Amino acid sequence: MIDLHRQAFKEEAYELLSELESSLLELEERPDDQDLIGRVFRAMHTIKGSGSMFGFDDIASFTHEVETVFDMVRNGKLSVTSRLVNLTLAARDQIRAMLDAADSGAATDLQASAGIIVGLRELAGFVGTEGAKEDHHEEAAVPRRDPVTYRIRFAPPRDIFVTGTNPLNLLAEMKELGTCTIVAQTDGFPPLEDMDPEGCYVYWDVILTTDQGENAVRDIFIFVEDDCELKIDVVAEHNRYDEQQDYKKLGEILLERGDITPQEMSTVLSRQKRFGELAVSEGIIPEGKVQSALAEQKHVKEVRQEKQVADASSSIRVPADRLDLLVNLVGEMVTVQARLSQTAALRDDSELVAIAEEVERLTAELRDSALNIRMLPIGSTFSKFKRLVRDLSVELGKQIEMTTEGADTELDKTVIEKLNDPLVHLIRNSIDHGIELPEVREAAGKPARGTVHLAAVHSGDSVLITIADDGAGLDKEAIRTKGIERGIISASAELSEKELFNLIFAPGFSTAKTVSSISGRGVGMDVVKRAIEALRGSIDITSVRGQGTRITVKIPLTLAIIESLLVRIGDDSFMMPLALVDECVELTREDVARSHGRNLARVREHLVPYIPLRQRFAIAGAPPDIEQIVITQVNGVRVGFVVDHVLGEHQTVIKSLGRAYKDTEGISGATILGDGSVALILDIPQLLQAVEMEQN
Amino acid sequence: MAKVIMTADDSASVRQMVTFTLKQGGYDVVEAVDGKDALQKLANTKVDMLITDLNMPNLDGIGLIKGARALPTCKFIPIVMLTTESQDSKKQEGKAAGATGWIVKPFKPEQLMAVVKKVLG
Amino acid sequence: MDEAKLERVTDPQGGETLKVSGGVTICEASDFREALLAALEAAPEVRVDVSGLTGMDLTGLQLLCSAHQSAVRRGKSLHIFDGGNAIFRDTATGAGFQRHTGCPQDRACSCIWVEGER
């Protein structure tokens, strides 16, 4: 676009230059022709003005010199000589060369320009080289300032309207700068018969709170400030420190404004009545002035209140990777702190232990606040789902309302991102399989409109997300039939309700009669389960036939650090997420012998199956006489893991494994222990799944 | 109905830029090549605002402002003059003649729009 | 802006209503003032109906205010009826004319700008 204007300027300039040439030649013949002089001046003036507008700054500043000389000629301070005409002609050629050069990008002959300028200046009688005056005051970036409240009295001249100024526009501009209270003063109004209908009688008291600075306020009045009465005073600066005391009393304000004298004020103050009423009834001051002072009090009070709210919610934006870095560093710190504590304990040095404990406390606080920074409310995800529900219900001809609860529940940013897809799938499932068509619902005595309720709530170091619908509920028989059909369970299998429901998470399971575009082809729920487990979460279903289904997803608050149980097998250390651990029991040689190799332990009259990890991981060496079973609970099923020793709880900073080890079965990551050695973090759900698969 | 703004300038490139900018801003534009042309057009066209250069052949900006203010239809409209920094005295002269405000050359399209918005509301 | 219209209606009870509609700006200010003066001359009680206004500038607001002051001085009364006209209300508010109590002339608390009395 700008190129188009530049082109237009160049064409115009070439035209002006050729006109200039003939004018100059004529001028040489008739040096006193004012019309010719004016023409030359205007040509230069236009080239200068337009040139600078379209970015030909060199041309503009050069032409300025010629224009200045011709301005003197025009005003009779200089006469036209052949030397002047020669120089101007040379200048004209130079401008033309500059225009040409602007196209080709060739350098212009600066020497020639300078020569002409010196010649012209000599002619004009300027001594030395007066540097081009700095026209452009650099507009420095306006720093953010604390808001300031100004009191502005603006009294326009009576004849302001005949200069085309509309004072209402100026008031509107002030409103754009910030919070603004405007009081029109009408005390100077003449009776109607004496009023000039085209005159301006009103004046204003404006209280304006803005962070734009006084110059921005003054700029509004730039065209009128010479002609009108304008007073701008600072009445309050809203930084953090002056907000404590009450704002000025009414009398003080009026005194400051000069609306009342100190004598008058003390007269009024000597009576024990409200100042404003008194001042008016005593006839000291017109009502309007008091009005405006009262408005100022009110305004400042309101602004201060707003400011407090704003301060409370003020925030800064930080790139997410900086936070990740911080969390990583805190992780390292936690590791080092663990080493420190361990070393201190070994040294048996009470002073060192005290320091280590202090560091431990601080590290824990630091860790919590660092993790806290990454927490975001889950609400934004919720609102996305609203749209999903709306679109899907239209597509399926169902009437569904989505309600949400706990949108302000906070979760680690990464967790929220990774939760999105699984939740979408679960909601789709509820809508597709759960909520019935309106006719079906009405026939069943339910409201035609179904509800999907999405809730998030904190629970310890986890967040529980529930998706509950009031739809048809799960059909246990259909699930069983399908399970048998698909060969997931045997026809004779006795399954609890929970186990039955869990079948829908099995790979390749789908109960939908037809495959719809929404819940896909029965590959969904197992993927959902994997995704949730990858977040070290768990998923749980309850359902009542005809009343609805409730799916609860339990997710740890953060992915970076977990509480875990440190165990040992031989020389190797392992971590088990504490959230999954129920209890630890001993396993003696006798116990093993009693179970006849069936890997079942009797715990308080219940049989708990266990997996000997030493065997599973093929760790060489003999187990100790007394082993430990760490009993975990996954999806409501208790399963034990046999280890050599349980060492205790541990703050585990999760380090992901390198690409080569990423898919190692049963291992989700690693951590570094206090002594610098590495412990692998067990992926309990995955281990269980692998074992189950082998057994089937 | 879009407001009508007249631009009076003997520089075709400035006129073009002003016209383009104003049309972008949703205004209708009437162009005049000098003060005389402008006054003739003002007598027949109702405009909501006038933007005039000061240095023009035939009738200069000051003359145009005075002439416009004498027209009943232009008595109260905003009139903005285009000046250069060196013309501070002209600014005063223009204001005395009835100009509402001024724009200092060189200016950017945004500055033009800001002033138009300021005086036209 | 629409053309300004000033109509005077005298109702049977002798009340005088000045109905102002369209856009009332400085160009119509002189006529507006004459109409207000004539209405005040004609009756002790004047109602200015601005419900049909599509625009008013500062001169109009000034004239209304001055007319009210003049009415009070003459022992007459002048009311504004705006019929909820948002343009009129916004203009008056934007110009800082709205307030909580009337001006010093307003002994009878009839100020046309006081909230809630329109």
Structure write-up:
The complex is a heterotrimer of chains A (696), B (121) and C (118). Chain A has 696 residues and is of the alpha+beta class. Chain A has five domains: 2-124, Four Helix Bundle (Hemerythrin (Met), subunit A) (Up-down Bundle), CATH 1.20.120.160; 148-312, no CATH class; 320-374; 382-556, Heat Shock Protein 90; 561-695, SH3 type barrels. Chain A has a five-stranded mixed sheet. In chain A, strands 19-12-13-21-20 form a five-stranded mixed sheet. In chain A, strands 14-17-18-16-15 form a five-stranded mixed sheet. Residues 127-143, 240-244 and 512-523 of chain A have low confidence and may be disordered. Chain B has 121 residues and is an alpha/beta fold. In chain B, strands 2-1-3-4-5 form a five-stranded parallel sheet, with helices on both faces. Chain C has one domain (5-94): 2-Layer Sandwich (Transcription Regulator spoIIAA). The longest helix of chain C is centred in the middle third of the chain and has 16 residues, at 58-73. Chains in contact: A-B, A-C. Chains A and B meet through α1, α2 and α6 of A and α1, β4, β5 and α5 of B.
